[in-house]
Specification:
heterodimer; A: about 270 residues; alpha/beta; TIM Barrel; B: about 400 residues; Rossmann fold; four-stranded parallel beta sheet; 14 strands; about 15% strand; globular
Amino acid sequence: MISKILKTFLECQKEQRPALLTYTVAGDSTKKQSLEIIKSIAEHADIIELGFPHNTPVADGGQIQESSHRALKNGIKLPDVFHIVKDFKQSKHAKPLILMGYFNLILQYGPLAFLKQCKKVGVDGLIVVDLPYPENKSFADQCKLHNVTFVQLLSPTTSKKRIKKIIKDSHDMIYYISMLSTTGGKLKVSPKKILSNYNKIKNINSKKNLVIGFGITTKTIATLKKADGLVVGSQLCKEITRSLQIRQNPVTNLGRMVLNLKRKII
Amino acid sequence: MIKIKKGIPLIDQHDKNFLYAKKFGGNFVPETLKKPIEDLTQLFEKLRYNKKFLKQRDYYFDNYIGAPTPFVKLQNLTRHLNGADIWAKVVSEANGGAHKIYNATVHCLIAKKAGKKYIVGDTGAGYAGKMLSMAAKKFGLKCKIFMGAKDIKRQKPNVDAIRRNGAEIVPVYSGSQTLVEAVSECMRYWVSNCDSTHMCVGSTVGPNIFVKICAWSTAQISRELKNQMTNVFGKIPQKVKLINCVGGGSSAMGFWSEFMDYSPIQIEFIGVEAGGPKNSKLHAAPLTNNAKIGILHGAKQYVVQDKEGQISETESISAGLDYPGISPLHCFLKDTKRARYTSATDEEALAAYQLVTKLEDISPSLEPSHAFAEAIKLAPKLNPSNIIVVNSCGDSLKDKFIIKKRLGSYIR
């Protein structure tokens, strides 16, 4: 049986468009609201990435740090994150869901217990920012046993030799980091350059679904629509911050923003 | 149980995943940093065995940092406590006033070899930042220092020095606004700029290569001490206690590394962590308080954290020790029982600063005052055949405002 993530990519390919992936933080700004947000986003997005926040994030820029901070301040804990996933997966527009975060939380929860819980609530994939290849090998294998896609990351600094190895050990989705940056950085590399790097990776194995993330916003998304998938995160987190500041409902604002993103790539 | 191997530098006793005792250290970093870390690892492995590079290092250690730093008997303190023979290795006499200059100098030499024009670093007490800015100026590198906003306020003398050296200070406002956040922000900056910029981690923490370079650099302290002890006593004495404060653990690693293969009965290592305020639950002492193993700044280590794995807030009067984690090397030494770890409270450190400053010609900063606090506790219980050596790795001058606030006046 193929995974829901793979199925989604196949459907998007049929429609000749990239999959739209979104990232928001669980518990931002409340548990309930973050659930409402992903439910609203899921009407237009293809795959939902949900962050489980850590208070010492070494790869996140200001926007996502702020979202994480809000969520932690509201007392979000892993059991709440699983609860949100479970609710979401039973909702009307349920889509494949990928949890994203840092390894220490998984380590303290117990990697096996964590995966069992993922399987139980219906998590489809995992991105662990600070567990690179090959350190992630055994954990990635465990993920596979639990029907969870472990998403390997590639960056502009990854050597060709290493890319080949990582692809060989990858599951249904690979994530290409567009530029040297933390999340939320301004796109400082031309879309042409990004796509050229992207194609180099695709040429190694065209069957692997490769998504591009970092620096993608409403302004830049259309330029990269040749990719298998595109991830928008910081812009959404920033929109939550903005909505809260002007006392608007982040749920409707984010739903609208994601619809707008979707329109630019179809 | 895993043991320390004799004849192999402690920094090299890791497995292929860069883990010590299979559980401390490693490289838990974002993919983007894998390559720069690998490049740096290869470069360092080449340089550390390159005779020309070693000659260059020694030249700057001798003529720029000033080697050796004094090894002096604390006559009055010994008499006052009437027990063990107390000595100090006055590392604060090194150029810039602390051991951080060794790591900073070596990093600048490496950055030059790597062809990098920019160097960035973190700092807590401001010493690592001050030294890096000094060395960067000396070697013609552009320098940025990341420092928590709280530390910028409490370590003004060092902040001024960093600015005088022409470096840019980047204040970090997130979270606790102390060292832990400065290191995170510095790492984030490196993620975005690793193509043009060299990163210096200010202590024996972070991804493995930074643990290695730092410990390799500060090892100069124990190389000197070994010679000095042999000169003074005719040989290495039978009962020695080497007492050092530990925050990230860089000065302690340097103070102990040359004595690693001696039996713990002959040369005992005692690490003193920051116990925080006397009646507070907050501290910065993961080893003393049996913190659980977690990941912080790219390495597995004992770290002060909550049940979920969120890094906990710490508190210490000493900015340099105010860090929730601890070097993987110290975790290794703790588990193998080669070193013993304890803590001193803010109040004990202040009292130690006062006593040492009153009786002796040296005036330790609040970090080594934690080590002196332990020496003061231990010395009266021991007879004069025991030799206590304290690493006085910083000068109180940088803490004058804190001391004045707490004690009403500052004397040096």
